[in-house]
Amino acid sequence: MKEIVVSGIRPTGNLHLGNYFGAVKSFLQMQHDYNCYFFIADWHSLTTHPHPDNIRRSVKTILAEYLACGIDPELATIYIQSDVREVAELYLYLNMNAYLGELERVTSFKDKVRKQPDNVNAGLLTYPSLMAADIIIHKAVKVPVGKDQEQNMEMARKFARRFNTIYDVDCFPEPDSFHLSEKAVKVPGLDGSGKMGKSEGNAIYLIDDESTIKKKVMKAVTDSGPTVPNSEKPEAIQNLFSLMDIVSEKETYDFFNDQYNNCAIRYGDMKKQLAVDINAFCAPIRERILEIQSNDAYLDEVARAGAERARISAQKTIREVREIIGFRAE
Ligand code: ADP
Ligand code: TRP
């Protein structure tokens, strides 16, 4: 039996390089070796109250982008979270044993409270229990996500463990986050500090065209260059190198790294090369996105078949859970 893998991405915009190298790249490898469930977390996106048209459009966009990246519906189950209602039922059960104090302590919740004090809704607070339900509904053991999801993953393990303890059962395995290399990738932004992200407003999207990529990269924050050989790189410069390390050939990275160490670096040249390499990476994906996005019949069929498969697995778990809790299974 293949091990079970679950991961999801919220449909709140297009996929960017952070999403790709932090999560999607793992999906592409894992789909060959595991029983994978990859979904679009549209329920999670309701915390920001999107307009229905907006939801429809973003869900379709992410689905097309998943497929364009190479996630194969023949290998992995690709579905839309809201098509699998059993997840909402499990979310309800998990919430009964999720405590205000622990939910309030989650860093991403505290960030949201700071950033959107006028919309601190219960969906935001219980984000980790919905994410846990997404994962344990399929009894997943591995979850490919970026480093920023570590705390949510801890909560998912805690909720799985708690359910088992309360009912004295061995129903849910504890899911682990999964990274392709030993270290979780954090794709940096090019605005000087922090990660690349939609809400950070610093993302390079897979759909961006050549000139947009170039414009974004050329704007990256740099400094006047090192004056002492082999000096440590300030964060903004390190970020530029980290991105190059991710998208460029090793020789290219080594070349500019040597230049930096010899105090001969020309950031303009480095950025031009980085833009070329990012474009070379994105161009084929971009073409496929445009092609798939206009094929509504194909997208509908992928979503329908995915929902059907995901529901078979989810219903099996929900039946078991209902019986454990003391409800009728059907
Ligand atoms: P965003 O941060 O842009 O809103 P999401 O939160 O929707 O993106 O992230 C979807 C997936 O992509 C998650 O697994 C997340 O860990 C990963 N991810 C997002 N940004 C990065 C990044 N800069 N580096 C690594 N992984 C990332
Ligand atoms: N919280 C994840 C993010 O912001 C998205 C997500 C929702 C998810 N449910 C999940 C990821 C379950 C992995 C497994 O990126």
In brief:
With 330 residues, the chain is mainly α.
What is the CATH C-level name of the largest domain?
A: Alpha Beta
Low-pLDDT stretches? none
- Alpha plus pi helix count: 13
Approximate helicity band: 55-70%
Describe this structure in words.
- This protein has 2 domains: 4-174 and 295-325, 3-Layer(aba) Sandwich (Rossmann fold); 210-290, Tyrosyl-Transfer RNA Synthetase (Orthogonal Bundle), CATH 1.10.240.10.
- Helices cover 55% and strands 7% of the residues.
- The chain has helices at residues 17-33, 52-69, 86-96, 100-104, 107-115, 122-125, 127-136, 150-167, 210-218, 235-247, 250-261, 267-293, 296-325; strands at 4-9, 35-40, 77-80, 142-144, 176-178.
- Helix 3 crosses helix 7.
- The longest helix is centred in the last third of the chain and has 30 residues, at 296-325.
- A 3-stranded parallel sheet has the order 1-2-3.
- Residues 6-10, 41, 44, 131, 134-135, 143, 145, 149, 152 line the site of tryptophan.
